[in-house]
Amino acid sequence: MIVVKNAVKSFMGVKVLDNVSLKINYGDKIALMGPNGAGKTTLVRSILGFYHLDSGDIEVNGFNPNKHRTKVLENISFIPQTPPPIKLNIEELLEYVSKSSKVSPQTIEEEARKMDLNIKKNLKKPFFKLSGGMKQKLLIAIAIAKNSNILIFDEPTANLDPKAREKFYNLLKELDKKTSAIYITHRIEEIEGLVNRKIYMDLGKIVEDEKIVNQDVK
Amino acid sequence: MKNLFLIAKLDIRESMRSKWFFVYLLVFGGLMALFFITGITDSVVMGFTGLSRLLLIYMQVTIVILPIFILITTVKSISGDRESAILEYMLSFAVSLRDYYWGKMLGRFFIVFFPVILALVLGVMWGVFKGGELPWKMLFIYSALLFSMCAVFLGIAFFISTVVKSHDVALGASFVVWITLLAFLDIALIGLMLQNRWNDEFIISLALLNPMEVFRVGAISLFDPELTVMGPVAYFLLDTFGHKLFIAYSILYPFGLGVIFAYLGYLYFIKKDLL
């Protein structure tokens, strides 16, 4: 569960989060929307412990992300919008993930196979040399294999073709009922079947928070 | 601690594949090859012969190359990862900031120190093969001086890399640090000395805060304990410190300074926004 209380964050005098309060319960599947500069990424990065708030507080499963970052991140899977140009090869990246997050490389390979990605063929290849789609599939496989109770996806399907997108949505439909998910997106129609709550941000504030009755969402 | 060593190991593997590491390895390996080809170990210049001569030349070259190599290759360690969003992804896993920062530092230390010490060992082996006498004590102290110099510039580079958000600015800052310590500081101090604005002891004390200067004098004193090549400054140094104390200072001071900078960088890393 994530609780955000009166979160304020400014960059160079501009309030990017303006007194944001939010409660995300177990099982909430949220579409986080808003124009560029609305504060979506800042909110997510604050939840992940990358930013220190000017005032206010965030708790993830009862822990502050800045003070107890490992406890918080044990239960979060994150996929950035653009896969970063990591220079580690796939084998090394899997070693990093498996040892830091206690996920077996086999589980990641299985999840990748569900997305039609053969990891074993590319183990010695540097991550940044994979195609955009392959990178995104691998990050998705890692995120799902982590079996976290909170998933945070920033435009996760941006690099995927329609077929891969379909497989990704199918994987998400298999998620545990209690898993919470935040999808940062500009295209609600793509994830409409996956969410049960819509949050709209603008100018650092939450301007709309709406529950959706969705038969497809567990 | 387990994650710290994991990060160090992955950083070493990643660096060993990178182009800059090959260039770095080539520069130091090439230097040694050049020394052998030009017959430096056989030459006699200003009384320095054989292995001592080789180590003296090696010291003069490392003082120019090593700091800038360490600075420009290390400042991108955190700032480059931050700019390319690698840091955002890698730190989204349950790794403590302590393990990440010191793991990166440990890995990078091995990468910058290994080629330097390898070239030195190769040079010494060649010298011994050519019939020179192995100066164990000198080699040990010289290695410690190199270790300290790596530590201080690595500490400064990590500090810059953490505090400066942009990779380009970090590179610029590291260049300014290098050129200041290499040349401008000496020029400025000599200028002040010539104008007699401050007394000589104060100027020399200021110069001794420069880790490059300390390395240079410490290394020279290994070959020339009386520091005759330095002129009148030698009297002040030897009267104030004595040879042994100065050697200890030239090893411990840069190392301590490097640790202080690295720790300040760490404090900034954990207390401020990561991205």
Spans of at least 5 consecutive residues with low confidence of chain B: none
Shape of chain A: globular
What is the average per-residue confidence, as pLDDT of chain B, rounded to a whole number? Answer: 85
CATH class of the largest domain in chain A: Alpha Beta
Give me the secondary-structure category of chain B: mainly alpha
The secondary-structure class of chain A comes to alpha/beta
**Termini of chain B, distance in Å?**
24 Å
Question: Beta fraction of the residues of chain A?
Answer: 25-35%
In what order do the strands lie side by side in the largest sheet of chain B? 1-2
Rg of chain B, rounded, reads 20 Å
How do the helices and strands follow one another from N- to C-terminus of chain A?
Answer: EEEHEHEHHHEHEHEE
* Total beta strands of chain A: 9
What's the helix count of chain A?
A: 7
Number of domains of chain B: 1
Write the CATH architecture name of the largest domain in chain A. 3-Layer(aba) Sandwich
Walkthrough of the structure:
The complex is a heterodimer of chains A (218) and B (275). Chain A is of the alpha/beta class and 218 residues long. Chain A folds into two domains: 146 residues, Rossmann fold (3-Layer(aba) Sandwich); 62 residues, no CATH class. Helix content of chain A is 30%, strand content 27%. In chain A, helix 4 packs across helix 5 and helix 5 runs parallel beside helix 6. Chain A is globular. The two termini of chain A are 17 Å apart. The mean pLDDT of chain A is 90. Chain B has one domain. The radius of gyration of chain B is 20 Å and the shape is globular. The model of chain B has no long low-confidence stretch (mean pLDDT 85). Chains A and B meet through helix 2 and helix 3 of A and helix 1 and helix 5 of B.
